[in-house]
């Protein structure tokens, strides 16, 4: 988890919007979005305000980018809150929590081991299909560049009907389409010149590339922290998103 996601996690833990954080920092909402997407980083004076506004210290925000021992710094804000509640309980309450925690830990551990074994078995037996792959080019936040002549890679995906329908796979960057698509998701795309409203597609505006839902007069962001993009003649549809690659990796 990078500093951007740490900032977002701390903000959400306080039930604070990007606009509210921006006012506390003396910056724009777009600047906060850029910090969280890691397309830019706050300067030193802003960072000091960030610690106070989010009620965190440097260790919390920077633990993934500097060599800080994980055992001392990998607890989230919500986990700290659970610890505080646990300490408030009497002995009987703590013993009950310990009993449930140990039981659920063992149950989850066994399930995860079985899932990992099954996943490895599926990967070994499931036929694979090779498609064209654009790395981190479909922005779900600030626009990223997509050119017709950009070099592409090849990626192996499950050999499914959806994979054969797709013309390429592209990686999402940013979180403006959460909870539908997340930063780092790989999605199948079918090239189209037009598609019905309500579908999610890859769009180009100038040199910027976006993954958005097609609306009547706008491109819609599913994450309400981000504004929609008004329709204009310079927006071009690249293709329809068919779904995440991992949805079919079963």
TrEMBL record:
SMART domains from the UniProt entry: HTH_XRE
Give UniProt keywords alphabetically: DNA-binding, Transcription, Transcription regulation
Its recorded name reads S24 family peptidase
Q: Which InterPro entries match?
A: Cro/C1-type_HTH, Lambda_DNA-bd_dom_sf, LexA-like, LexA/Signal_pep-like_sf, Peptidase_S24_S26A/B/C
DNA-binding as a keyword? yes
HTH cro/C1-type domain location is 7-61
Q: Which organism is it from?
A: Blautia parvula
Gene3D superfamilies attached here? lambda repressor-like DNA-binding domains, Umud Fragment, subunit A
Q: Which PANTHER family match?
A: HTH CRO_C1-TYPE DOMAIN-CONTAINING PROTEIN (PTHR40661:SF1), PTHR40661
